[in-house]
Amino acid sequence: MELNKIYNENCLETMKRMPDNYIHAIVSDPPYGFRFMGKEWDYDVPSKEIFEECLRVLKPGGYLLAFSGARTYHRMAVNIEDAGFEIRNMIEWVYGSGFPKSLDISKAIDNYFGEEREVVGEFYRGQNAGKSAGIMGKTVERTDIISNPSSDLAKHWDGWGTDLKPAHEPVCMARKPLSEKTVALNVMKHETGGINIDACRVGIDKTKESDSRIKTGLNNVSRGKHNKKIDIAPDGNGFEMYKIDKGRFPANLIHDGSDCVLDIFPETHSGEIKPTDKVNRQIDINNNYQSPNGIYGKFQILHRHFPPSSGLAARFFYCAKVSPAERGESRHPTMKPIDLMKYLITMVSRDDQIIYDPFMGSGTTAIAAHQLGRRWIGSELSSEYCEIANKRIEHFTNQLQIF
């Protein structure tokens, strides 16, 4: 099987050419079954048959991470479980942006009776609608007409709709059953079965600059000036005992760092700034987070963090939605951020292991795997999206990796 390649075909065809127990982890953003924008590929969630093949090609103990939508998560999770996977957890990616796919009932009633409504203005989708929809400097404006109800019945139902604003996407976390009696035996035989806890820890809070290895948890530091000394007697051999500050345990919640999400979390310390205080949210030329109380440390690609006053928000990894710069020329409608995919891939794999994405889409999984030193394989049925992925992978890796 040729690695670092996207196959322009149904994922079942790709996996049929893979031997048993070949892939270390599967990380994917498959169709949600929403029939999104009338796209044929989003007609339904992946079938049980697809997940059965995923199970076959995964090594025992290998993890499957699959995004889904709030309305159809249950359908996908059932297919994954029925295929033979163990459902281990569900990760929630929570975000503040987005708009409801909601019907304006008042407007629909006026339209039904042919009533003409009074137009009172236009509504721009988001503060930077033109910028966020812009592709390579081209501005694309998306607006809604604001109008007042005309008929008495429409006035009676003014303000009513049919759906809530989407604010989260669940990620199903499943594992292929172990082939050995214990996790320890399984990881020794297949190098799969566990998740990389320390590499995914959320940075601890410091009121002064400290070793980023400690903040990110990327290395286990046993002693040093940044470690906290435990107040106990020496162990009898002349050594002092130290507490290791490795960062907060990774949780099954990821948020986008937007103000409306951060406001959900209460502060743990009063009288200090909140990360939502834009006056104090400044980054200097060295990428340090600054406030009137001093420098709190550098942002990390995978382990961003907030100052101590941010309270519970600091307990969770955060990653915003895809920026215009990251999107580039791509118009793929459901693109995921590279940082988010890197975090998930880091969680379920080691260096040089093989990552498979059955629904490669815009190529984000491949980009993230490449940047982390993993090998990868992808499948994508749409030739249009293969071309999009081709350009993005070439841009972010400086080499063409689709054939």
Descriptive overview:
The chain has 403 residues and is α/β, with parallel strands linked by helices. It has 3 domains: 5-96 and 166-196 and 322-397, Rossmann fold; 105-156, no CATH class; 204-247 and 265-318, no CATH class. Helix content is 25%, strand content 19%. It is built from 13 helices and 15 strands. It has helices at residues 11-16, 48-57, 73-82, 105-113, 129-133, 152-156, 183-190, 212-216, 259-262, 324-327, 338-348, 364-371, 383-397, and strands at residues 5-7, 23-28, 58-67, 86-94, 118-124, 143-148, 168-175, 228-229, 242-243, 253-255, 282-283, 288-291, 294-298, 354-357, 375-379. The strands form 4 sheets. The protein has an 8-stranded mixed sheet, with helices on both faces. A 3-stranded antiparallel sheet has the order 11-12-13, with no helix packed on it. Helix 12 (364-371) runs parallel beside helix 13. The longest helix is centred in the last third of the chain and has 15 residues, at 383-397. The protein is elongated and about 70 Å long.
